[in-house]
Amino acid sequence: MNSLFSSHLQHKFFGILCLLLLTPLLSYAQNALYGALDDYLRIQTQGLPGKISYSIAPLDPRTQLTPCSAFEPFLPVGGKLWGKSTVGVRCLGPSSWTVYVQVQVNVSGNYLISARTMPAGYVLGAADIVVRSGDLSTLPANIITDPSQAIGKTVKNGFSAGQALRSDQLITPWAVQQGQSIKTVSNGHGFSVSSEGKALNNAAAGQLVQVRTASGQTVSGIARPGGIVEVSN
């Protein structure tokens, strides 16, 4: 009986000793994971507009991580570092495991709102927009942050006053329209040749347009504002 009791105590003591030795290793694994995740977030959010801040949620206390010498953070398919997000972290060795961590990415910057009510078909001018500052991560991802992205474009479905402007609510105006009489311009080294023609399709500035020339020939060029099409030699 005493022998069995002594053996039980030995096993219990050995289990406690292993736990005490393992706890610092598990804590080190989590700290190293947070360090790798912090580096990943700092690099991946550098290209976002505005002032960036982020936080990393603690792991569930029940999560047990075995020691790891190399981590590979990654964004799950369809994920985006914007607002509340999830980032995966793989252990590359000597163990093999994957854990998912909740992160919060906040982006403080400027965005545009409508200065007044505007109907569909209205062409935006500088006086029609107002710049506001706030957390862009709480707004739609296609929010407009630069006046140059809005001025000169056409309102698609109408705006109410104070409404945040989104890129999918604006239409880029046609630089040339189908059937319009246009001028083709061909520039070369030391010369420039222009002629008249008719556009065969609608095109915004910078888009490809086909033109039927006065001689009946069909050529392609790049649409420019003012009914001009640049034709390369």
Structural summary, described in words:
The chain has about 230 residues and is of the alpha+beta class. The protein has 3 domains: about 1-105, no CATH class; about 110-170, Type Iii Antifreeze Protein Isoform Hplc 12 (Alpha-Beta Complex), CATH 3.90.1210; about 175-230, SH3 type barrels (Roll), CATH 2.30.30. The protein is about 20% helix and about 40% strand. Strands 1, 2, 3, 4 and 5 form a 5-stranded antiparallel beta sheet that branches. Strands 9-10-12-13-14 form a 5-stranded mixed β-barrel. The protein has a two-stranded antiparallel ribbon with strand order 6-7. About 15% of the residues are buried. Residues about 1-25 have low confidence and may be disordered.
Rg of Cα set: 31 Å
Euclidean distance between termini CA atoms: 102 Å
- Return residue spans where pLDDT drops below 50 for at least 5 consecutive residues: 1-26
User: Based on DSSP secondary structure assignment, what is the total number of beta strands?
Assistant: 14
> How many structural domains can be distinguished in the coordinates?
3
Shape: elongated
Order of helices and strands: HEEEEEEEEEEEEEE
Please count the helical segments: 1
**Amount of helix:** 10-25%
Q: Strand-residue fraction?
A: 35-45%
